Amino acid sequence: MKVNPQSFFNFCANHATLLRALAERGGEISEAEAVRLIRMNPSAAEEIPETAWRRLRELQILVPTEPGSEVFFMADPVSRLLTYLFNEANPATPEMIRGYVLSLETTGKRLARALDEEDVQEAKLAFEEITQTLRRIHADLEETQHAILGEVARYKTERTRVSVREKYRRIVHWMERYVEPMIEIVRADGPLRAAFDEAERLLHRAREEALFTDHPALTRNLRFLRLVAAHALRVFTQCRKEIQPLYESLRRSSFIAEGAARALEKLQTDGLSKWGNEYLIEVAALRFQNVPSNAAIALTLRRVIEHPPEPPPVLQLSTEKADPGALVRLMWLDSLPDLVRRDLPVGDLLGWLVTKHPSPNISDLLAGFSRLVFHREFNAAFSDQTPRAYAAQDGEIEASPVTLISV
Amino acid sequence: MIDLAHLASIFDRLKRGYHLGPDDEPEFSALCGGRSDEYTAFFAAIGLKLVRHEREFFYFEPDNPETVPDTLPRIAIFSYIMIDHAANQGRPIEEFIFGQNFLVTALPHFTFDRYTALLRQVDVHDMPDLKTLLKHMERIGWVKWLGEDEFRFLRPFHRVFSKCLEIVNSTQAAAKQAAENPGPPTTDGDQHSATPAATDE
Question: Which range marks the domain in which residue A370 is found?
């Protein structure tokens, strides 16, 4: 159904803010949402929202997503017109530019064939197609640059609360979706430049072979080719320069935020006892233990300095009369291994000890017995022989004989 | 004879965990000057590692004490909450933290139940507790009081950012390792830990 242009533009004139709101919202929209926007953006002419809603559909500004659908979207021609009017830009995707490159290649082949066959009409058509493609590429590059710069500016000035990690994801999307692939396409050794070089070669050939006589148009196209090639690379290099600092900053912020979020999440789920030291930021703290203070050192020095002199103590160095019993016992015990080594094997260890002690008592006998039985150089063997009595100064020991041999 | 400038005051502050940044003159300039290596060598000789952070501030490398002071988890949780809040504001985090002064009463730490519950785990219950915590942070050179209720973060707070990046790196490394060496299939029915072979089934 054709739309009356006058009605269309009259409506647009009275509903500019509403159209802008609809364009900015984008995507699919329900009646309720559309009416809400209409109420928020009333027209200059007094009318009820239902009228505006009806006119939006009649003028095919909003069209249903499918016949009979209750969901609508802004008609593509209207959307493009508004983009143009509001000086907004949509970025060209790398696929679109690749499409243009492919189109140039195909048209180039047609032009080459036309030149070979000297088909003037076909050469003219191919030439016009090349011109049109170049214009589209130029326009799309301009628009993409505009869109990217707009996006960067929005990031810098955006006041709405969008988390850093969300912003980072968006900027990564721009980098990965538009800037980097586009640079790959338009760089000096990329497919766009190759297609342009081929087109330029064919245009030169067309001029040389005088098949196409519109020389000013040919010159214009050759100039345009070079301009677009240089412009494309410059545009996307500039875009990368614009977006790179933002990307780096958001990347770092995003990682910092992720680290903090992980630490807090771990604490929330596992509790403090299992949180672990890896989440702590440790700080040095030197702890000195038992270090005297300056005052204590000064006091000690003063005491030393001020201490009254005393004569040195006199040691009594006379020889003791009585034998030190404990020392004699210790020496006897220490001498036993050497003594017994000479007599090995010994058939009756306790009997041997009795003969070797100058005045045996039970305690010394048992101490000597233990010393030899557990000595690492000897092995003791206990037997079931008839017990014997061993006399000591302070009593008697009854035991079966124990044999001692060397290891 | 050691003739390093301000050595005594530098040592006295660093040994207590203080971080020397541009706000700490003349010690900071002494450390940044041409004799930086001599300070490092001097402290190394007595068993202390002087760290010069990439963001230009100094501190002694902490050893790993068996007992962790109560203040460390408190400072860590406080800082992570601060970053979490900053991230939600949508501005680059460093710009948010260092680009403004903060009022204790306007801090986000008790604005969400989640934050409050996390702080409760380290016995931080109210604004006076937060103030005490901030005073601890002042003692290690991370914040500077500008008034009764107002403070700002100092450059050494970058240590928290470094820790956050370290956490992410170690998480990514662990995830990478897990992807390269998938473990045996679990038998407890955990769908997430299923090996690729089990998933293929």
Answer: 325-406
